[in-house]
Amino acid sequence: MKLSALLTSAGINIGVCALLLSLYSVLRKQPGNVNVYFGRRLAEEHGRHRDSYILERFVPSPSWIVKAWQYTEEEILSAAGLDAVVFLRAIVFSIRIFSIAAVICVFGILPLNYYGQEMHHDHFPSESLDVYNIGNVMEKSRWLWVHCLVLYIISCAACTLLYFEYKRIAKMRQIHITRSPADPSHFTVLVRGVPKSTEESLSETVRHFFTRYHGPSYLSHQMVFRVGKIQKLMSNAEKVYKKFMHWNATAFDPRSRPNMFRCGLCGATSNSFELIRSQSEISAAKNNPTHSYLPEKECAAAFVFFKTRYAAVVASKVLQSSNPMLWVTNLAPEPHDVYWSNLWLPYRQLWLRRIATLLASIVFMFLFLIPVTFVQGLSQLDQIQQRLPFLKGILKKAFVIQIVTGYLPSVILQLFLYTVPPTMMLFSTVEGPISRSGRKKSACTKVLYFTIWNVFFVNVFSGSVINQLNAISSPKDIPAQLAKAVPRQATLFITYVLTSGWASLSSEVMQLFGLVWNFLKKYVFRIKEDDPASVPSFPYHTEIPRVLLLGLLGFTCSILAPLILPFLLVYFLLGYVVYRNQASNIMNVYCSRYETGGRMWPIVHNTTIFSLVLAQIIALGVFGLKESPVASGFMIPLVILTLLFNEYCRQRFHPLFRNFPAQDLIEMDKADEQSGRMEQIHEQLLSAYSQFPPESHNVCLVDGEGTSGSNRKDESTESRNDLSHPTLVGLPISRLRQVVTAVSMLVSLQSKSSPM
Amino acid sequence: MKLSALLTSAGINIGVCALLLSLYSVLRKQPGNVNVYFGRRLAEEHGRHRDSYILERFVPSPSWIVKAWQYTEEEILSAAGLDAVVFLRAIVFSIRIFSIAAVICVFGILPLNYYGQEMHHDHFPSESLDVYNIGNVMEKSRWLWVHCLVLYIISCAACTLLYFEYKRIAKMRQIHITRSPADPSHFTVLVRGVPKSTEESLSETVRHFFTRYHGPSYLSHQMVFRVGKIQKLMSNAEKVYKKFMHWNATAFDPRSRPNMFRCGLCGATSNSFELIRSQSEISAAKNNPTHSYLPEKECAAAFVFFKTRYAAVVASKVLQSSNPMLWVTNLAPEPHDVYWSNLWLPYRQLWLRRIATLLASIVFMFLFLIPVTFVQGLSQLDQIQQRLPFLKGILKKAFVIQIVTGYLPSVILQLFLYTVPPTMMLFSTVEGPISRSGRKKSACTKVLYFTIWNVFFVNVFSGSVINQLNAISSPKDIPAQLAKAVPRQATLFITYVLTSGWASLSSEVMQLFGLVWNFLKKYVFRIKEDDPASVPSFPYHTEIPRVLLLGLLGFTCSILAPLILPFLLVYFLLGYVVYRNQASNIMNVYCSRYETGGRMWPIVHNTTIFSLVLAQIIALGVFGLKESPVASGFMIPLVILTLLFNEYCRQRFHPLFRNFPAQDLIEMDKADEQSGRMEQIHEQLLSAYSQFPPESHNVCLVDGEGTSGSNRKDESTESRNDLSHPTLVGLPISRLRQVVTAVSMLVSLQSKSSPM
């Protein structure tokens, strides 16, 4: 690829970016889009200053950037949670390390590469990008030690920065734990694999076991219920009934907003089922949280509440029974984080599910080779002409060539990549995690492996040896293979940074999908009501892998093709602004219902180390190819030192991300006992986990202290007042008949009146 | 190799075996060797019926085999510990599975291979062994499905047997734990990484921490002392002094036995230091076990005693501090099992040591390629003749050829292999384990990897592609490579079974080293005294890898070269008798001072699964080479099923080998509290771990209840009465001067009188 093609690509992307960003700064001021850009805040305060037409609304302005800067880390932490901060720290780390790398490489390496060979340099814009690569340096050049030194500097800087970030985030996590004084998850253990007994109910079994073996600290427990087929049918019936009632209301209720064109397909929230619910039932449910309406549907899992945090941690860490598949204990996730529909899964199934999803992910990764092979074919023009001869005419034009080779491949790749996160999320769901955050973390790892494999390795290997996918089968040649292939594919990676990085960032800030959906909703489906369920949670499982992948490209290309670094740095800077905005942003746009408590950081750390080691191995290969054994030899201690550093961090910090330190928990317990808060916490604890709160589930935390458990609890206990599901499940037969009648009515009405 | 060469080799080995075994049955009756064969029993009862010349003593008799059979598993368990039983179970498992395999393969596969091709068969003994291999079966033969079916049967049988063995051993381990009612290790936690404080001593820090955070269950603690340079010097001085006193005694004491030729180099036990020790010192040490004579040598480790077993397990499982490198807790090993000289190692060093020894082991493994390459060169006659042309004349003789190709290679390999276990034991010591059993287990794993790599893989790969060690670098071709190479090397493996298996078994029963050492000691060095320290503990780290390696050879060769199976079966049967004898044997010959509590079994299980999968992968390759895609395809589900089975066992049983189930411990605690035994246990607990008991350390448990902790404790408290080391360490300066004078006297005497 020529420099001019790259510039074309960069131009297109800068144009798209600028357009989208100005559009965003205009659109965000339009009242109609307020629920796209301020979904979070909307849940808080319902529609102030709607419908005020001012000219200022239509002038692009950078005020949102200024606003994004105004938030301090403390504010973001308290509002959007630790995960958001960790994510931003990952970007800050990238900015720091790539600033250093960019300065050193652009001023140190780039001239060396450019003047690496005695050659005639073309006119600047039409020069091939390869002259900026290490491929242009002569063999046995004595300048290769500069490359070696630069890699040492980058590695040392990266490790130092990583160490301090890890330390800081570990500290933040500790503070995060100790600062949430009444988080019910600290007192609760999820028990799975409760053995079935013919003599007593599962609930009795749980009570007996824990009073016998954990008597002094056991407080209470709450069984998990399996939502069986009948319940599913009934909850569907409820939905249809709701819709029917709503339809009724909107059609005939004079108080309802005028709504002329309305199809029957749109969901709507209502509290229509309130009518078939007696106050006595509510109070019964409240007083006895373990009372079950359908005792035959109890499943072999329960939440067990303990009197102290330490007791809960102890119960979760110790092997309970001499059959490790029974009485499996884990610390419970936070109430909002519980993934209820996975809890009834038999524990002894889980290992099979884990293996099955692992295999499925691997198969999916390899199936994905088909589009990738196609894409990397596009970047080699002669290959296309050979395969698709009818394109020969078009491909003669310079501009078309530049678009096809410079821009199209990464766009196509990008489009295919959009299918990956939902698929991986599906796999992670099937895997059977007990928490939403666990599911997201698992999906994040899967997407990360997927992206690194499919974007980096497959492009590198099949780009160099087209259609020959067995390059991976000889590990010894990998450094040399990589060394040959990476510089050659560097231009593809630069365009990838442009399209995947820049453009996706601006589409992220634009919330293109949200905008389109909002438009459709308003002007096609004519829905006026804002559904709080539609406020998304931040897609860490797509954003973290993207940032890490671009970091990988940066490290591996840094000394081989330093031209990528400025583009990457711009990406990270832009990303910092955009994600801060989205975290003015996560405070505005997204809803953080649950979080992993910073457990994303070890993923970031490990991937960065992997990237560094990969870069070093590739450099080893390159120096080998350039016949510079000294530089090549100097790489080996660097690899070893980096791995040792990683191992040290794993020993020093990683346990903190898997366990709670007993010391902190005991101190918290003591403080609570002395201040007399413990009683209150215990009371709240018993009602914290409710399996069937359909509406409260979707309400986002709106106060400034989103991470504090006590607030959550208040909210969830409030939301129990309009619970409709649990009582529906426990309906007596007579009421069930009412529902069925209503449903049949609705079906007949639907078939007549539906405009679709 | 011809069948006749194999028969020669078998003949030599049978001869050696028969000779050694009859020698054994004679020698074991000689009173002079009683401390070789009955070292254990000797520690018990001192020399009955010595010097009674009866003719019967010189007649070989199989009575020892009968005796070996008489012991029940219960007796072995109670006398020699769980590890001995686990080891015997591994052999029983091997006998069972290889009986099945031998019957099926010899009657099912062998004829198929023999008549696999339309060929003229030579006279029986001079026929090449290759006709019995799968290599003799024609390509696309329709009989290959028999091989496939047989492998299915063997795999299913192996998995079923493994499952029941695992279940049984898990149960035995549970009983082993619950049956040792007062094992001090159940109440004790080893804390490492105690943070240094300027304000208080380490001991104070430990007390404060545990009273603060584990107040209700904390009982006491005991610091670990670092044996510094001065102590080492003094303990050396003590040894020399002892020797001097002994020399004095033997030279001038009329009560001593007449001892004409005595050099000054031999160690001797005495209680000569008793004289400089006052009773008051002993009682002081007894009353205050944490009292230190040299407080400046305290190191950052301590044994912490808890009131209940459950509390100790909890403290060992929970992350204590927010710095995971501080306050690291593990369940303590049993008092005899503690590896004191590793306890002072700073905890933050251990991960580095672990990595360093791993690297050292790998380097050692690869350095070992040199002798192995030489050995496998020997088995290819033309290669030898080409390299060492002067041997051409000798190598013409048929008998020499048979010896060189059939017997010599495995003997040389065997000799080199003898250096491996001590080296690996050294590595495992450097690694820094806290217990002797942990060190042995670690050495066992290392030796196992080493043997499998160097005996199996290197022989297979470099045997087929001589001097070309890069076969491992292309994983995709491995099945095909193995499929080509394994049948070719099958004859080498058969001879390996003969030499390494049969001959080493008979040398094990003979205790050749012990016998030679005993002879030297008696007739060259003229030592009469029996040193109890010379009674060895059972070398699990050499025997388990050998049994597992032969199992690996059996599985991989079963359908390819079924001729190995009868030899293997004989080995295992012989092994069963020999090891039972040594376990009449472990009860007689060896001293089981410590044990892993059956934690060797997961190693056996995993290796067997590995062998099975390897056999299946090789079969996959072989069927591929024979162009039988159906049979080849049928191997893939078998591999997957075997791996799934392994994963199931890992989930179901493995946690039991790493943790104690809380349920059992709590029941034990309750039983002890109700019966009032707890107080007594607590009292014994405080004196259970003594860092400096030089003599008691070497005394083997002689009663029938070797695994019971209470007996051990009694014994160790008894042995405190003749402690000499701790008081030496705390000697006042005046006494130190006495020692130094004695040493200088001794040195001058030595230089004059030593006959060497």
Question: Mind explaining what this structure looks like?
Answer:
Chains A, B: It comes from Musa balbisiana. Chains A, B: InterPro entries: Csc1-like (IPR045122), CSC1/OSCA1-like_7TM (IPR003864), CSC1/OSCA1-like_cyt (IPR027815), CSC1/OSCA1-like_N (IPR032880). Chains A, B: It is a multi-pass membrane protein. The structure is a homodimer of 756-residue chains. By secondary structure, chain A is mainly alpha-helical. The first copy, chain A, has two domains: 3-181 and 349-658, no CATH class; 184-333 and 724-753, no CATH class. Chain A is 63% helix and 3% strand. The first copy, chain A, has 31 helices and four strands. Chain A has helices spanning 3-27, 34-37, 39-44, 63-70, 73-80, 82-114, 144-179, 202-213, 229-252, 279-287, 309-317, 340-343, 347-367, 369-378, 381-387, 398-406, 408-417, 420-431, 436-464, 478-510, 512-524, 540-557, 564-584, 601-625, 629-652, 654-658, 662-675, 678-686, 709-719, 725-729, 733-753, and strands spanning 188-192, 218-225, 298-306, 328-331. A four-stranded antiparallel β-sheet of chain A has the order 2-3-1-4, sandwiched between helices. At the A-B interface, helix 11, helix 13, helix 25, helix 26 and helix 27 of A face helix 11, helix 13, helix 25, helix 26 and helix 27 of B.
